[in-house]
Amino acid sequence: MPSEPIEAEFAFPPVLSAEQEEDFRELDVENLSPEFTNVDATTHVPRRVHTIHELELTRTKEGYHIVGFEKGKGEDPREWGNGKKWYITLTTATLCLAVAIGSSIITGDMVGPTKELKIQQEITNLTVTCFVMGFGIGPLFMAPLSEVFGRRPVYMLSMFLYFIFTLPSALAHNSATLVVGRMLAGLSASAPMCNIGGSIADVWAVENRGAPMAVFSATLFAGPCIGPMVGGWIGQLAGWRWIYWVLFIFLGVSFSLTLFIPETLAPILLRRKAENLRKTTGDERYRTLEELEKRPFKEILKAALIRPFLMLVQEPIVIFMSCYLSFVYSLLYLLFFAFPIAFGEIRGFSPGITGLTFVSIMLGIFFAGFFVPLQERIYANATRNGSYPEARLYPMMVGCFILPSALMIFAFTGAYAHVHWIAVCISGFLFGFAMILIYVSANSYIIDSYSAFAASAMAAKTLLRSEIGAMVPLFVNQMFHHMHFQYAGLLLGLIGFVITPIPFFFFKYGEKIRARSSRASQGRRLTDEEAKRENEREKYDFPDKPVAAR
């Protein structure tokens, strides 16, 4: 999909088939479905069009020349050479890393600004809060821009603004400059995250995405943990301002890479081709499907701003899964502040060594990747009679037990200096492992449940997740100091156990919940007996139809 959310790339197996994705990426309408309602230009009578191919035929009969990619001519980004594809992949992965690191690198020294600027610690913590808030709000406005202007201009503008708005924080002499600069940087940084998933899909076919996705996922998931690792040493050896200067330099390099990245969004490329054909031939009938079916920008923006909020209050799957993921996301940012307490305050580790302890979370994240083939086999077995969204929940049903266990270990090992530091790192490893199982599984379930509204569903989840996660820095220090470390951790572990039934509930009742929604997909879970009856009925209804075509 042109507006394919970043999380869609981590669904294994893919939510859309290669054929569906090939069709969907050429028509930039989020609520594209297997059936379309079209209106005849002469009679104004609505008629049903069943596929994009039939939509092309219908428009052709109306006299239009539908413009598409010509195979073998290099017009389609998926036909570009591997060198060009890898440049796009590595560049977008760098942008992803820049955003991920930018959200957490400043936690390497949160005391320096407090002392130098003579402000309260809560004000310094706002630098994380405001960045993450902007990170959640930005996609509501930034995502529709790519549909109109393409990915390249959005990348360039976004990274340039992110680059520029990081400078005030590096030069700040008061709290207002420090905090406002971070808020503006967060808003700017949000654009790459709502386009990068689509960029990968633009240039790589589903069957060729293994290596690109490995690189991409490493930057996405490891980036937030790399931030405090790097920031801790910079803050310790050079001071807090140099954390911002290093980030500023890295963003400058990242921005320069966007100057050479080509446009990859299919509707934009086809629109340019159609404009050129109209100009050279003088025939105004050369049109793309996107031009003929295009919604006004006002409608696109309205849908992008309103639909996510509607789904947050009307769709139980979006509500509860978003709340669960918000809790997990909040825990990640909580650990950026809790690890320094466990290792720095209680055990006397230096900021640099404390930053290195985040390697434990990274190891858990990478180790979880080895379970993808197992998850694929489980999914294939569960969907042998037909796919249904709830088959995506198996990893989450494992991770939901590991997560609170990790929190309990963290609570009762991190609190005591006499407990070896490796015990706390084990809890970090388990947290990283559980986080990926839950994150990938829950996001895949949301996307599979709302495949026609995936961008809006993900925008709703991202908004809630980011705004809740942004609040954590404002209370985490008080929580662990005033409640005492072990009891603060215990509270988090108990919350984790309380929400454990959520994936099991949706595994059992998700199909009934989806059946009541006009937005949700209606895939059904069939037993072997039901599948046998369905096949027999199809054979009776379509005796001459090939099995593969049914």
SSE inventory with pairings:
Elements: H1 18-24, E1 36-39, E2 46-49, H2 52-61, E3 65-66, H3 82-104, H4 111-116, H5 121-149, H6 151-171, H7 175-193, H8 196-203, H9 210-238, H10 240-258, H11 266-281, E4 286-287, H12 289-293, H13 297-314, H14 316-345, H15 351-356, H16 359-369, H17 372-382, H18 394-414, H19 421-449, H20 454-471, H21 476-482, H22 485-498, H23 501-515, H24 528-541
Parallel strand pairs: 3-4
Antiparallel strand pairs: 1-2
Helix pairs in contact: 3-7, 3-8, 3-9, 3-10, 5-6, 5-7, 5-13, 5-20, 6-7, 6-10, 9-10, 9-16, 13-14, 13-20, 14-19, 14-20, 14-23, 16-19, 18-19, 18-22, 19-20, 21-22
Summarize the structure.
By secondary structure, the protein is an all-alpha fold.
What would you say this structure looks like, in words?
By secondary structure, the protein is mainly α. Helix content is 70%, strand content 2%. It has 24 helices and four strands. Strands 1-2 form a two-stranded antiparallel ribbon. It has a two-stranded parallel ribbon with strand order 3-4. Strand 1 and strand 2 form a beta hairpin. Helix 3 (82-104) packs antiparallel against helix 10 (240-258), helix 5 (121-149) runs antiparallel to helix 20 and helix 21 (476-482) crosses helix 22 (485-498). The longest helix has 30 residues, at 316-345. It is globular, with a radius of gyration of 25 Å. The protein starts with 17 loop residues before the first helix and ends in a 9-residue tail after the last helix. The relative contact order is 0.13. The model is unreliable at 31-49 and 546-550 (pLDDT under 50).
